[in-house]
Amino acid sequence: MVRFLLARPIAVGMTFLALIVFSVIVFRTLPVSLLPPIDVPQIVVKVNYPNASPQAIEQNILSTIREGLMTLNGLEHMESKAGSEVGNIRLTFDFSTKMELAYIDVNEKIDRLISGLPEDLPRPQVIRINTNDIPVVRIQVLPKGEMDYAEVSLLVENVLKKRLEQLEGIALVDINGKQERVITVEPNRAALASLGMTEQHVIDAIVAGNSELPGISVEDGQFRYYLRLATRIETPEDIMGLPVRKDGRSSVNLGKVANVGYEIAKPVGFHLFNGEEGLVITVHKQAMAKMNELMPLVRDAVDQFRLDYPQVRFELTQDQSMLLNAGISNLQTSLLFGGIFAFGVLFFFMGNYRMPIIIGVSLPSSLIISFLVFYFFDISINVISLSGLALGLGMLIDNSIIVLDNISRKRQEGLPLFEACVTGVNEVMSALISSVLTTLAVFVPLVFLSGISGALFYDQAVSVAAILSVSLLVAFILLPLLYKMFFATKEGTPLPEDSRVFSVVLSLYKRVYRRIFAYRKLSLAVLFSLIPVMLLLSRLLPVQGLPPIEKFDALLQVDWNEPINASQNRERITTIMQQLEGAFVHAESDVGLRQFLLFEGESSIQQASLYLMFSGEEQKDSQVAFLRRYFRQYYPLASVEIQDAPNAFDQLFSSEMAYYELRWKDLASKRPIEERQMDQWLEELPLREWERGPGLQKESAVIFRIDQEKLALYGIGVDQLLQQIQKLFGSYLITDIKRFGEVTPIRLKENPVDFQQVLRTHYIRGNDDTPYLLSNFVRAAYDSHYKYVTADRNGIYQSILVLGDNPDAHEGDLRKWGTDRNLAVEFTGQFFQDKETIRQLVGILFISVLLLYFILAAQFESFVQPLIVIFTLPLGVGGAFVVLWLTGTSLNVMSAIGLVVMLGIMVNDAILKIDTINRLRVRYDEDAGKLDARQALERALYQAGEIRLKPILMTSITTILALVPVVFSSGLGADLQRPLVFSVIGGLTIGTFTALYFVPLMYWFLVRKNRFASVQPVA
Fold it and tell me: What PANTHER family does this protein map onto (predicted)?
């Protein structure tokens, strides 16, 4: 095939040129995003029920919804958590579930359950989690001067949001910090009492004044008109003009018995930026949109907002496109330094400038053509797929170097240019195909890991497979064609020769080779003894998910564990910002309940989060230490968590699941165990390190106890009393004014005084219209109750979080503790998921090694020779562990990927070495009259080492040198790639030595000892 194609250079050249042009066109259509659009198999149902206790939300809402969702297809886990005024149910599905259908199914079931839920409950929100839900940027909107905050909220909701949604590529615009304008009615109770009226008369007048005749029409001759009541209200002035009547008697204007006006509704949450109250807009992109094209549009839109609305200030924060830019920058750096160092290494080893130019043409050609595979496999350009391309670039250079070196060797042996190109490619073709297949055999099975990890590896595996496959196409067709064009010179032109540098290296290699082979058994024993020593270093390496990235931002999350309102929560956060004033670049905080549509996490009025961006690592550390001291001193009851601000990767991999959790259920009562009984049992726990789970945390509350006998004695109904309490203490909604999509609630004004005083100064009327003080029927007392009610698909549970290094050490004792108290005990958490992931990983790696063995057995037509390649892998892994340990680097996702890349290159070198030894053995076996079998083997091993020394050294050195600049770089991209670089450098340093000396030693040992190690002639 190579001969046929090289004989038609113009057709081949035009074909490659067409492929490149077509690839460039396709590249312009590929979506660009931060992460691949992964459907996280989770759906969250959120409930917001003002003035409801956790017990009421669990009993009246969540239990009904859980029962209705129990039959969902593919449902694996169901967790619910009811708090004060809020509740949520988290549904986890099998990863193979079609989440589009699951989302529709959940919504349909919620619609069916609505009739069984409280009438005044807003429809529960159903939130589907997707990697595209991570906002690409946050826009801060801050009113200037005395501008009405409600007007700014309307501007953001009705104008800015819609203008942003019109931008190409934007899927959703989410808002937090909106404040609602309401009309409040404050009855003058003294005036009402003097007229013999009550608040209910005022409420009835407003409801009647806001009535509307739906669907009624009249005819006037041949015309038809729809009726509209002229008494409909729209402003506070309209309300004050309404007549208030009692029992058909004379009326009085409402304005004389009540104060009516516009106010900002009682807030349940705030958004702060640098201590100023404002709003935040989060921008979410479409799955197929290009982030690098979307962000300039967003910036231009914000610049236009600044011109159109000078009374409002705009700021852009937390731009997640920085991660994508870091990935693109890393790929550009790899290309640049890969080309420069490949040129330098080839020049020093070959003393020829044409070889680097050929590689310089083939490298970007392979990269561009790889994007065709992206198009056909529906892969976007994202950080994951770009990292796969960056990984494949090193192996791409290796294939190019091997082919060019072999063609040059054939020319030095005296073959004509055309025959040298054909023979040089054919000789290494099967070995290179095997090396690519073995690399994929190690890498691709990782796709079958369950969960997010497997989904992320899919994009990486496709990109690696794409660039390696294209590299073979380029190495077998384009490279020999370019070689033939560049070296098609006149007769008498000297052939390319080895440089002086390589001659010195070759001489050094031969000396070490003779020394090692003089003590073969000892050398092999020493190399084998290094394997367990270096692998044991893995126990000294800390294990992390992602490498530690140098971050200048921190996130403070606090739950005050006190019954404070949102305004008090805001004051505390503002005080903290004032304490840190001048220490941070900017700060933003979400206080109380979040209004984001896509916020699936936990939120309550007494919780807050504070994001702080600092100018440097040292300043960040000092301020974080100050915050810890501050909370210990002033708010010892608060639950505080201070961590590095999560980026998109952290948000994707973060889990709501506890690490190791002991759950129990009281199957008899099917309700939480009473506090006193539970406190006594917890004192008897056979465990030292633990903390209360959400279902055991407590908070203070006010309990109203109603005297039913007195109510019956005075002829007062319980419903009447409850309605009066709601008017006095709740946010009582009278009616809504609806006008062109804008809804303005009309509410009774709340009493700002102490609740005890309200009970002592307000009345309720009996059947004989006699007023009685509320305190006669209601007794109030302070009490504590469980802060949350937690449940799963089997019912309500309570739990503790087990701490310590070996959380499973007390499993037997904890089971006995539960069974002694007639509790159903269950252990769950991330600990068990991690064990399952490790079990899957071990199984997948075992399958990878089997695939590797089968491919090599087919390549070498031997059952023994593949073992040589497999035995080289532990030495490379051990070398990587040594460098990771010396540099203080953890074993994480990036260093693990580096191990896979390094093993791919090591396998490549070992396969080529063994393939060359086999070829030489066949040649020397044909000359059996002059050499015996032992001499033929010795000569083949020695000769193969000399022949393959140059490509092995060049591939290793170019890969290592291309990665070295990352070690000395700074920034987000370098922090992510540095563990990968250390793995590759450590593995290849040992791996190169392995390929040069360990492979021939193992070959000599196995062939000498095993009669099945003979080779077949290579076609």
Answer: PTHR32063, SWARMING MOTILITY PROTEIN SWRC (PTHR32063:SF0)
Determine the Cα angle at 61 with ends 57 and 64, to 5°: 140
Percent of the chain whose pLDDT exceeds 70: 88
What CA–CA distance (Å, rounded) separates 852 from 869? 9
pLDDT value of residue 105: 93
Q: How far out from the chain centre does Cα 626 lie?
A: 30
> In this predicted structure, what is the pLDDT of residue 1016?
46
108 shares its domain with 188: no
Using alpha carbons only, what angle is made at residue 181 by residues 179 and 184, rounded to the nearest 5 degrees? 130
Domain boundary among 790, 805, 833: 833
* DSSP 8-class letter at 541: S
Q: Tokens 């590759």 identify what position?
A: 984
Question: In angstroms, how far is the first alpha carbon of the chain from the final one?
Answer: 14
Question: Which of the given ranges, 213-217, 290-294, 365-369, 726-730, has the highest pLDDT on average?
Answer: 365-369
Give me the domain span that covers residue 65. 34-131
CA–CA separation, 41 and 216 (whole Å): 49
Across the chain, what does the average pLDDT equal?
81
pLDDT confidence of residue 1019: 36
119 and 26, same domain (yes or no): no
Phi then psi for residue 1012, to 5 deg, are -90, 5
Is 216 a domain residue?
A: yes
Whole-model pTM: value is 0.72
Q: Residues 332, 447: one domain?
A: yes
CA distance 338 to 361: 13
Indicate whether 840 and 935 sit together in one domain. yes
Mean pLDDT of 241-258: 82
Q: Are 468 and 395 in contact (CB under 8 A)?
A: yes
Query: Are 160 and 305 spatial neighbours (Cβ–Cβ below 8 Å)?
Result: yes
Q: Which residue, 877, 822, 816, 881, is CA-closest to 845?
A: 877
Which residues contact residue 197 at a Cβ distance below 8 angstroms, ignoring those fewer than 6 apart? 244, 246, 257
Is 366 a domain residue?
A: yes
Residue 755 and residue 878 in one domain: no
Rg (C-alpha) for the chain, rounded Å, is 37
Chain CA centroid to CA 955, Å: 35
Could you give the CA distance from residue 463 to residue 398 in angstroms, rounded to a whole number? 17
Full DSSP string of 788-816: -EEEETTEEEEEEEE-SS-GGGGHHHHHH
Of 887, 939, 694, nearest to 798 by C-alpha is: 694
Residue 1013 pLDDT exceeds 50: no
- Asked whether residue 908 falls in the same domain as residue 931, the answer is yes
Query: What's the pLDDT at 688?
Result: 82
According to DSSP, the residues that pair with 641 across neighbouring strands are 557
Per-residue pLDDT at 181 exceeds 50: yes
Which CATH number does the domain housing residue 740 bear? 3.30.2090.10
To which H or E segment does residue 29 belong? helix 9-29
**Distance between CA atoms of residues 847 and 109, nearest Å:** 42
The total domain count for the chain is 4
pLDDT above 70: residue 97: yes
**Which tokens is 371 given?**
């994007």
Longest CA pairwise span in the chain (Å): 133
How far is it, in rounded angstroms, from Cα 593 to Cα 85? 10
CATH number at residue 57: 3.30.70.1430
Distance CA 845, CA 680 (A): 49
Task: Write the secondary structure of 380-410 as one string of H (helix), E (strand) and C (coil).
Answer: CECHHHHHHHHHHHHHHHHHHHHHHHHHHHH
With respect to residue 936, please indicate whether it lies within any of the assigned structural domains: yes
**DSSP secondary structure letter of residue 891:** B
Residue type, 343: F
Domain boundary (799, 833, 867) is at 833
Same domain, residue pair 884 and 817:
no
Q: Confidence class of residue 490 from pLDDT cuts 50, 70 and 90? A: very low
